[in-house]
Amino acid sequence: MSLLPKRSAGQPSKLNQILDLDDFDRAARDRLPQAIYDYVAHGSETETTLRTNRTVFDGWRFVTRNLVGVTERDPAVSLFGHRYASPFGIAPMGGSALVAYDGHGVMARAAAEANVPFILSANSIIALEEIARINPNTWFAAYQSPNANAISGMVERVSRAGIPVLALTTDVPIGSNREADARAGFGFPIRPTPRLSWDIATHPRWMASVLGRTLLRRGYPHIVNLEPDGGPGLFSTKVRGIAAHEGLSWDHVRMMRELWKGPFVLKGLLSAADVALARENGVDGIILSNHGGRQLDYAASPIQVLSAAITEARGMTVMIDSGFRRGTDILKAMALGAECVFIGRPFLFAAAFAGQAGVQHAISLLSRELDRDMAMLGLCRVSEMRPELLIAAPDAA
Ligand SMILES: Cc1cc2nc3c(=O)[nH]c(=O)nc-3n(C[C@H](O)[C@H](O)[C@H](O)COP(=O)(O)O)c2cc1C
């Protein structure tokens, strides 16, 4: 019996042309104002890290095991006491409301339906309490202000909402330099520059189905998950640098660890020394990440530091994101010791193109890739993925 998610009977026919995760990028590009598309798709400065996040996977080839009998394939993984159907999940992405109507709700529902991990961003106009009701397994990624009252209030709020896993995003001490946004006249707070106004006016479908619908249904949007009692209005000057907290340090990690009783995850680490510090400070899991090439340009790609991180993790759950698009990418990370892979942009573009059905289709496509890859590699469980099944590509640097 197949363990793959079923294709829903009412799936929109436009999804038939979407064959892999990158197809969602092209499909969403046509629908979104250029500035919104650029905000999601691009990285910082020269975008070297953004590009390397994809090319890095060229560095390995598989050595298959054959004739092992692979009829009973199951890609399920257990993370923090929950058994998920797949070893990949949806990374936290702020600004989703600008990309798709009810963006975070759509992704939360699709993830619940497919039983894959979903992490809610603090930069959301939908309250974490509402998302937790939609998907009780939602994890929350805090952009935490380093203020003791804000920390204790936020931890209490997340705990009261019944969220099982709290993550702290650690790689945004300050905002990065994303020139594509500047060129498009886009930034937070959103300001109607002539260029942006023209961009929006020439995308009436987006204006009606995303912006108009959001304003009609939710009123003036606020970024509601930044502080214990909410956060600033989307168009207010207070949203400038909402995620940036220069003063955040290991002292605050210790404070959060003490207050939060459930699994606690740090997202955005790259250095083995930081992995060791996370472990010493009682953290339960890490997500190695360079923020999808959106923060420090020329930052290492997480899979390049995975083996060193595993050596220091000793019992912590090691997860990873940035640039993963294929079942084979996921299996490479699993061979090197990762337990779960998170993916960002494609799910957001899938929501932009076809709402919840789009995200479900994205999950289903990736699940099918993974399933085929497992069969051809000779695996029934992803935990059977081992370093011996990989070799360095002959032409790899
Ligand atoms: C539009 C966008 C918004 C993001 N917002 C957040 C956020 O609010 N919090 C966070 O921890 N990471 C955020 N990220 C980073 C993602 O969680 C993730 O690390 C990254 O997208 C993974 O790379 P990928 O898009 O290549 O899969 C964002 C990424 C994108 C594309």
Strand and helix layout:
Layout: H1 21-29, H2 34-41, H3 48-55, E1 60-62, E2 77-79, E3 82-84, E4 88-90, H4 96-99, H5 103-114, E5 119-121, H6 128-134, E6 139-142, H7 148-160, E7 165-169, H8 179-184, H9 194-201, H10 204-218, H11 250-259, E8 264-269, H12 272-280, E9 285-288, H13 302-313, E10 317-321, H14 327-335, E11 340-343, H15 345-377, E12 390-392
Bound molecules: flavin mononucleotide (FMN).
Explain the overall architecture.
A hairpin with a 2-residue loop joins strand 2 and strand 3. Strands 4-11-10-9-8-7-6-5 form an eight-stranded parallel β-sheet. A two-stranded antiparallel ribbon has the order 1-12. By secondary structure, it is an alpha/beta fold. Helices cover 41% and strands 12% of the residues. The mean pLDDT is 95. The protein contains 15 helices and twelve strands. Helix 1 runs antiparallel to helix 15, helix 7 runs parallel beside helix 11 and helix 12 packs parallel to helix 13. The protein has a single domain, classed as Aldolase class I (TIM Barrel, Alpha-Beta Barrel), CATH 3.20.20. It is globular and about 60 Å long. Bound molecules: flavin mononucleotide. The site of flavin mononucleotide has 23 residues, from loops.
